[in-house]
Amino acid sequence: MKEAPVGHLGLVDASGYPRVVPLNFVFVRESIYFHGGKHGEKYHLLSCSPKVTFSVDVPYALIPSYWVNADRGCSITQFFKSVLIRGQGQLVEDLGEKILVLQALMDKFQPEGNYQPLNPDNPMYGNVFEKVTIVCIKIEQISVKYYFGQRLDPSKLNQICHNLEKRDMPLDRATLLEIKNLQSGSAT
Question: Which CATH architecture has domain 6-184?
């Protein structure tokens, strides 16, 4: 989950329809956290029902059908990792936890730094820590899926790896690394 910049929060609106909201997030202390302002639809829906789903997917290389089956168009696939979570969303009130989460967000999305340390005593930040709304999703159930050709015949997977090396796009390199990690038993 650390490599995915965006997750999708699933809520149920007042009319009973699912509402999916893309948002930036961090995974800290075995929970999902996100932040925002207090006056918005997702916070209203959370106050009505704390039950949520949260999904993250990381796409890898798209595998053309002709790499798997020369004539059959339905063989196109994409390698991927995904996580689906069910849990309870709750507002974070503790100042220390808020700062921890905001720091984790900064580390994830601005790892180069170049900002004043997050400190409630720094006048630069004023009352931002009190005003910001942070939600913690306590995970109750988690489902992890990934596909990197593990169900393919080894000769077909070797051909795909050869084609990925030949095509040599950024996602191809990352996909090859995942395939090698999976084959060696050190999948991430």
Answer: Roll (2.30)
